[in-house]
Each structure stands twice: as C-alpha cells, then as structure tokens.
Amino acid sequence: MTRTDAHTADAAAIAAYWSTQPQSYASEEHGGTTFRAGDGALISVERRSPEYFREADRVLFEWNQPCHNEAGPFGRIFPYARYRGRPVLEVGCGQGGMAALWAERGAQLTAVDLNPDAIAATRERFSQRGLPGEIRQVDARSLPFDDGSFEYAYSWGVLHHSPDLARSVGELMRVIRPGGEFGVMLYNRHSLLYWYQILYLEGLLHAEGKFLNRLQLASRYTDGDRQEGNPHTWPVTVGEMRDLFRPYSARLDVRVLGTDIVPILELAMPGLTKLVPRIVWKAWARRWGWSVWIAGERR
Predict the structure, then answer these.
(1) How would you class 239 by CB atoms within 10 Å of its CB: exposed for 0-12, middle for 13-18, buried for 19 or more?
(2) How far apart are CA 122 and CA 280, in angstroms?
(3) What would be the CATH architecture of the domain defined by 3-298?
(4) Cα distance from N-terminal residue to C-terminal residue, the chain
(5) Rg (alpha carbons) of the chain, rounded to whole number
(6) DSSP 3-state of 29
(7) Host H or E run for residue 249
(8) Do 91 and 141 contact (CB within 8 A), yes or no?
(9) DSSP reduced 3-state for 251
(10) CA–CA distance, 100 with 116 (Å, rounded to integer)
(11) How many CB atoms lie under 10 A from the CB of residue 268?
(12) Parallel, antiparallel, or unpaired for β 134-137 and 108-113?
C-alpha cells in the first residue's frame, strides 16, 4: 500500500467513525443523545431535533465558559463583528454549533466536514433555524476552493484527527486571502490530561502501553474513549503548532485553554483544587490545559 493509499484508507476510517460516533457532547456515551442537566437529571432527545441541538450547544458552551463574552459564545476568540457580511470558512463543522454562531452574526458562512453525518446534521440545524450557509462534504486535505477565497477561516478540535495535519493546515491557509485571519484549536500533547489520563493511567497503570504506541494510545483514549475505535487523534505541542503556522503567518497568538484542568486534578488527586489557591490552578490551566488555540493573520 502506498503512502497516498494509506492516507485514503485512514480518511475513510475517520469519516466512518465520526459518522457513527458524532461529537454530540452527550453525557452518557460518546455520540449519544442522552444529556445530564444541571440538576443531575438525564434528558433523552431525538437526534437532530431542536432539543438535541440545544442540549449539545449547552454542554459545549458550559465546557468553554471562559471563551465567552458579550458578543456571545466564543466571543473572546472569534472576531464576529469584523467579518459580518464577509466570507468565513469552518473546517470540521461537526453538529453545526459553531457554524450557526457565525451565520447568526451575519457571516457568509461555508462549513465543511469529512463525514456525511456532520453534513446532514448541520444542514438540518440550519434548516430548522432558517440560517443561510453553504455546507459541503469535503476532505480538509484537498479543499475545493480557490486561493484566497475566504477572509476568515477556523477549525475547532478537528485537525488533530487528520492523517496528514501539515497538508490540512496548508490547505486551510491557502484559501485565506493575504491579510485575512484564522483560528485553530488542537489538543495539547504537553497537557495534564495527556500525561495523566493517557500515558500514566492507561499507558502505565492499565498496561496499554505494552500493546499500543503513543499515537494508538492517544487515539483510543481521547474522544470516544468509552466506546473505543477512534482511528486517529494525535495531539500537538505549542512548539509544533508554531512551526506549522509560522510559514503562512504575518503574526501569531498562541494560548492554552485549560477548562479541563479542574476535572483532571480532581481525578488525579481528589480534593486538591480545594486546597490549592484558584490563582495557582488557573496558572496551571494556562500552561498544561488540553486545548491550544492559535490565531493570527495570513501572510
């Protein structure tokens, strides 16, 4: 099998996995339709119903509360107002939650994803809410758009699933006009979650490291870890992100988003966050959180 054939096979497996295990943010199982409310009650909904999208958004927004402001969810990182009425691209739209935020705020939104479930879900969400936008099934490694087609492009928690990350990043940057902007979130390999949950807990204590290499461990014990089967997830480091984006960028801003840090600390050492001053664990979150956000201007 050639390198190209291997990548094609990987892409097919990735599309198949995410079609059957969509990122619904369900509480009980990855890809499910049962959510846990704030009072602890379980809420079961029909997939792609208005209630399903509402619950998925609620969980996503709660997980990322520090990213929000008066401009709306993720207003601290997304420059909505600057791109009202202008062409914006999302690579990896999932269930359409972020795409809808941009469309509601007036962007000329194009959303793409590798798997057909994501396309069907996002189209259904947009139809229910009467939102405009172009939604297409596309491989991020080969975007069907001319150079400089978009003024802003972003991807949230998706491209670390690409079997050829450098090529996917190159394609995303190719379709942004010079002077346009971008934002990409990838998982952080230099994080407490990776070190504790993946390498220590699963790799060492559960002895999975005897049978799986680090890529296989990361794929198996990140998204969908309770169902297994995730074919490809490889977190990056901050340095690797800078190296990937620097050749295309006039400026770069890299931030670690550590909204996961308290649950991981509680898992590792119950009660620790009550003993450690808030300012301390917030500093840890900014250094060893699970998500890295890189934003900048296209050269």
Answers:
(1) exposed
(2) 39
(3) 3-Layer(aba) Sandwich (3.40)
(4) 37
(5) 19
(6) coil
(7) strand 249-257
(8) no
(9) strand
(10) 18
(11) 15
(12) parallel
What pLDDT, in 10s, does the model give residues 59-118? 999 999 999 999 999 999 999 999 999 999 999 999 999 999 999 999 999 999 999 999
Residue 5 has what pLDDT?
53
The tokens for 185 are: 């979130």
Q: How confident is the model at residue 250 (pLDDT cuts 50, 70, 90)?
A: very high
Segment holding 294, helix H or strand E: strand 291-298
- Structure tokens, 275: 């003993």
In the structure, how many helices (H) and strands (E) does the chain have? 11, 9
Q: Give the sheet arrangement for strand 291-298, strand by strand.
A: 134-137, 108-113, 87-91, 150-156, 176-187, 291-298, 249-257
**Which pair of structure tokens corresponds to residue 53?**
């999208």
Enter the tokens of residue 25.
């943010």
Mention every residue, 6+ apart, whose C-beta is less than 8 A from residue 132.
103, 108, 109, 126
DSSP 8-state class, residue 66: G
Nearest to 152 by CA among 208, 242, 82: 82
Residue whose C-alpha is closest to residue 224's, from 29, 35, 3, 27: 29
In the chain, domain spans: 3-298
174 token code pair: 């190719």
